[in-house]
Structure formats: structure tokens, C-alpha cells
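does this look right to u?? magnesium ion version
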Amino acid sequence: MIRINHINKSFANTVVLHDISAEFEPGKTNLTIGASGSGKTVLLKTLVGLHEADSGEIWYDDTLFNRLPFDQKKNMRKRIGMLFQGAALFDFATVEENVMFPLTMFTDQSYAEKRERVDFCLKRVNLINAEKRYPAELSGGMQKRVGIARAIALNPSYLFCDEPNSGLDPNTAILIDNLIHEITQEYHITTIVNTHDMNSVMEIGDKVMFIHQGHKWWEGSSNDILRSDNQELNDFVFASSMTKQFRALSNK
Amino acid sequence: MCFPMFKSLLELCGQYFILMRKVFSRPDRMPVFWKQLLVETEKLGMSSIAIVAIISIFIGAVIALQSSFNLESPFIPKMYVGYMTRETMVLEFSSTMVALILAGKIGSNIASEIGSMRITEQIDAMEIMGVNSANYLILPKIIASTVFNPFLMLLSFIVGLFGGWLIVSLTGIITLSQYFDGLQLDFKPHYITYSMAKMAAFSFVITSVASFFGYHAYGGSLDVGRSSTRAIVACCVIILIVNLILTQLLL
Ligand SMILES: Nc1ncnc2c1ncn2[C@@H]1O[C@H](COP(=O)(O)OP(=O)(O)OP(=O)(O)O)[C@@H](O)[C@H]1O
Ligand SMILES: [Mg+2]
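got this back:
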């Protein structure tokens, strides 16, 4: 479980996050939605400590993460997996080496053991026969999948995904969504996913938080979202004419 | 007007030393570190052998030619051609000039490599895993070139003298025995040690400063280009300053 209390974050003169508090439960896929530029990525990076919060508390279970000294924070990070918006694969390494990297750095496993784990993770994300290729030779969707494989290699307790399915075709997007959802339940991971894809919200959103211009604007389950009368949320959710018509129909 | 510039320079120095503290810690995994060290030695050191050799052979030849033209006076023995070639190579060219060349070659390589890792969030990805990215990426580069590059200086020196020999035997401006007498005249072996030490210092400057600029790059690919240009300029200026200080201290 991850709990954040009154998180504020600003860059130079612009305030990006305003007093955000929330709870993210384990075994559930917690979604953060919001328009482009609303602060989702900044929130995620603040949670994992890539940005330092100006004020507020970030609790990982019973640990006050954002006050940990460098060494302990480093240890904690071995239990964190993260998929970046741009995958952030190491381009000096092949797919296999990318997924193996955290294993090499933090376990004493033999090459065969590591190999086995890598195979398992890559199979899990439906990626076969790509071990020896370099990230530059992969499509965007394949890179995302390698990113997820790398993030889950060490069996993380906390998984962060920044727009795992942006830029993917609908089928692959659903595949990745479901994958994240499945491993979250299977390994009882505390998962936080940033997205602005309403499909994902309806498919896998156990709990949804809507960020509007850096404020936590709304929170609830994916079922509540369609019935909410929050103006900004509705503008976001029913942005396309198709969804608007859908809503009109279902309200009749 | 000068004050803000001075302040930002001071800030830059502060950031540099903070980064160096992160770099100089025990590697997370020693076997991984040794492997990286080999890779970097190959990438930063071995791959510079050819360019250093080519430049040195030409410069050695040119110095020999020039000094023979300038030693027209019958009162100065011709063997001074060899002497001057040796002294110029060992004192300045093989260390300082080669270091300036390397600043361009490996400095830009390092700054753009680390800079592009920074802007594509690969460094963040390492940090998230709990890897000390500065230590993992930068320490092998610094150690590899600080240990290996002094041998490039040695190589440059030897090849430079060979270049002088080549031009002397091709043009016959002086006899070969005059050239060799000059090479041995008043030879101080500790100049070589001095020059190698200088090269080690310069290599430290090149790798650490270039890594610093790469590590603190932000923005897009244009910014990576810009930061690698700034890295080279900074390396060159610092090398010249360090050269001045070391010459004063060591000679
Ligand atoms: N390092 C930074 N320095 C200054 N401002 C930043 C920085 N990172 C983000 N911002 C600003 O914070 C705001 C939120 O950005 P963020 O990347 O979190 O948006 P987002 O919700 O993830 O958008 P998207 O859906 O497009 O990824 C933006 O206005 C952005 O300009
Ligand atoms: Mg984002």
C-alpha cells in the first residue's frame, strides 16, 4: 500500500501539484487520469523520488519513503518497478540484457537462472524471439513490453506505469492493460498507472483518480465515473462525440 | 555584472563536486565494474591509438623540419634538431596537445552518450532500480582513461620521434647520427614520468567534466549537442589551466 499526504510540487515558479493526498491499495490497479500536462508524470516521479516533493509525506507501507536517507531509499528501490512514458530501455544493451540488468545488479543468480527469469518475463509480456535485438530495432509497443518485463524482473512490490499504452494500436493497448492488471492481482502488487485512455479506465481501473491542473479533482471506481456530475471530469471523459452519444443513449 | 557569472560558475563547481562524490563510491557489483572498465578502456583508450599515432608522427616530422630550418646558424650543432624534437614532444605536445585532441574525441563521445541517456530517462530508469547511475556510468570511464591514456602519451612520444627520424632520413637535412645524438643529449627520464602524470590529470579532467555536462543535460537532442560542445570547451580551458599549474608545480 502507498499513501501520500498533502503532496506539493513546483518547478521554479510554476506549481504543478497542489496538495494531493491519496491511497493506493495493493492487488489493485490504481489509475491516475487527466489531460496532457495536468501533472500525472510529475506525480508519479515524485512518488518514486525522481522529483523531490516540496512538502508532504509519501508512505510505502510503514516506511516514510521521502524522508529516507540515500542508502535506505536505494534499498527500497529494489522493490520498485517502473515503466517510463518512453520505455527508457538502455540502448547499449539488447532486450535480454535490459531485462537481465536488475538481476545482475541485485541478485547472485547464475547466468542460467537469470536467463530463465528473463525468458519467463519476456513470455509473460508476449515477446518471443526478440532477446538478441537492440531497443532501436523494436517497435514502440515492443519497447513498452520490454519495459514492463524489466520492471517486473525482480518481482516488485510496487509497480508504476506511465502511459503504458499510449501510441499503441487498440489491440496491443488492451493486451498491455490486461497484462498489468493480471500481474497486479497475481503477485498482489501495488500498481499505479497513468493514462488518458478511457478504454483502460473501463477495462482495468479498480480505482481511479482524476487530476485536473495539478489538483486531485475526483476519485472513485470506474463505474462511478460515468455517473459522476463533476463538470471537469465529464469534459475529460466524454471528450469525443462518440462517447457523448453513448452517454445520451444510456441516459434514456 | 560579473557577480552573477561568478555565482553560476561557483554553483557549477558545487554540482561537479556533488556528482564526483556520487561517482567515487564503491560499485554496487565489482564483477560488473571490472567488465565495464574493460569496455571503456577499449572504447576510450584503444580506439584513440590510431588518431594519436597519426597526429604524432606528422607533428614529430614537422618539428624536426622546422627546427632544422631555424637552426641555420653554423654555431649551433645540427644535432639540436633531434634535441628540440624530443623536448617539444615530451614536454608539451604528447601530453597537453594530445589531451586537447582527446578532449574533442572522447569528451564529445562521453558527453553525448551520457546526455542522451539522461534525456531519454535511461538514467532515471537506473536510479529507480536502485543503481547508483553516476557510479555505474562514470567511474569506469574515469578510471579507464586515467590509467590508460598516459600510455597514449608514451606512444605519442615514441611515434613522434619516429616521425622525426623518418623525415630526417627522407630529406637528409641532417645525418641520422646527428639526429640520434640530439635525441640522447641531456636526456632527463623524469620528464617522461612528469608528462605521463600530466596526461593522467588531463584524462581525469576530460572524462569527469564531459560526464558532468552529459549527466546534467536536459531538454531535447539539440540540448545534448549543445552540452557536448560546452563540455569540450570547458575541458580545453581546464586542461590549459591545469597544465599551467602542473608545469609550475612539477618542473
Ligand atoms: N522538469 C520540469 N521542469 C519544469 N516543469 C515541468 C517539468 N516536468 C513537468 N513540468 C510541467 O509540469 C506540468 C505537468 O507535466 P506532466 O509531465 O506531469 O504532464 P502529464 O499529465 O504527464 O501529461 P502527458 O499526459 O502529456 O504525459 C506541465 O505543465 C509541465 O510543463
Ligand atoms: Mg506524462
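The interface with chain B takes residues 45, 48, 50, 74-78, 80, 82, 84-86, 88-91, 101-102, 104-106, 154 of chain A (CB under 8 Å). idk if thats expected tbh
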